């Protein structure tokens, strides 16, 4: 009887672990994850000048990290919110970043009004 109870407990634990695993289509990114990747780009989007290596590294890193559609939606929403929070951001410069950094994004025009869905 003790062996049966132990085995049942083990299967129950395994079932709980499987249920608690994130869905492969659920977003793994949060704005807390996204912001550090794009923060080095803020000086360029505000003041112009040269795009920093740190900015391009962040853009490339975020692009590599956001492979799932759900993650890309989260990243888009975070960038959209950041653009809205900093009205002085030059949206034209913001949209130059992927090209300057050699990154192909699924969206062509990032703006405070973008539909991230």
UniProtKB/TrEMBL annotation:
Would you indicate the residue range of the signal peptide? 1-27
Please give one Gene Ontology molecular function term for this protein.
lipid binding
Q: Name one GO biological process term.
A: lipid transport
What keywords sit in the KW lines?
Lipid-binding, Signal, Transport
| Record-linked CDD domains | nsLTP1 (cd01960)
What is this protein's function?
Plant non-specific lipid-transfer proteins transfer phospholipids as well as galactolipids across membranes. May play a role in wax or cutin deposition in the cell walls of expanding epidermal cells and certain secretory tissues.
What the entry lists under PANTHER family is as follows: NON-SPECIFIC LIPID-TRANSFER PROTEIN 2-RELATED
Q: Give the protein's recorded name.
A: Non-specific lipid-transfer protein
């Amino acid at each position: 009887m003790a062996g049966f109870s132990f085995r049942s407990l083990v299967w129950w634990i395994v079932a709980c672990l499987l249920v608690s695993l994130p869905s492969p289509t659920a977003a793994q990114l949060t704005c807390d994850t996204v912001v550090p990747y794009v923060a080095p780009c803020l000086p360029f989007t505000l003041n112009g000048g040269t795009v920093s290596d740190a900015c391009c590294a962040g853009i490339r890193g975020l692009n590599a990290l956001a492979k799932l559609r759900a993650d890309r939606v989260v990243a888009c929403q975070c960038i959209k919110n950041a653009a809205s929070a900093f009205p002085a951001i030059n949206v034209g410069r913001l949209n130059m970043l992927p090209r300057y950094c050699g990154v192909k994004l699924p969206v062509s025009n990032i703006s405070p009004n973008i539909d991230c869905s």
